[in-house]
Design a protein that fits this description.
Blueprint lengths: L2 H27 L10 H10 L29 H5 L21 H30 L6
Helix pairs in contact: 1-4
């Protein structure tokens, strides 16, 4: 096998082995889900701190985060949570599961880049095989 082909294959394999898991870990660290909270009031506090809802805690966009979580018992509720209490819908939507709505932009770009790299390496491999197979036999 040609040294160039080996080098490209090694670089591609190293890139796939390091970038793939690192991208998933980086995406997962910053995202909060409703399962990360015990009480709805805690999720609501995170939602209220950034109403743009980057964690997607309010899936039905009604201003109430993680509606399926239990509420803090009245005996342990703090004065701030009762003062900032939000009306709970009686027949709300099963919302606030959080999580991702799809891959982030950098994950899409990384996936496309790795796909193009893999296709290029496969095409290069086929070209090299055809060139070696089409070469005329040498006479000694």
């Amino acid at each position: 096998m040609n040294i160039r082909t080996r080098s490209l294959s090694t670089v591609a394999l190293a890139l796939v082995a390091t970038v793939g898991p690192a991208a998933a870990a980086a995406h997962a660290q910053s995202d909060l889900d409703c399962s990360d909270f015990v009480f709805q009031e805690d999720a609501q506090a995170v939602f209220n701190s950034d109403p743009s809802d980057p964690n997607r805690l309010d899936a039905d966009n009604d201003g109430i985060a993680c509606e399926d979580l239990p509420h803090r018992p009245a005996a342990t509720a703090t004065a701030t949570s009762t003062a900032a209490a939000t009306a709970v819908p009686q027949r709300g939507v099963n919302a606030g599961l959080g999580g991702s709505r799809g891959p982030a932009d950098f994950e899409v770009v990384g996936g496309v880049g790795l796909t193009v790299l893999g296709a290029g390496l496969a095409a290069g491999h086929l070209v090299l095989r055809r060139r070696r197979g089409a070469a005329p036999a040498r006479r000694h």
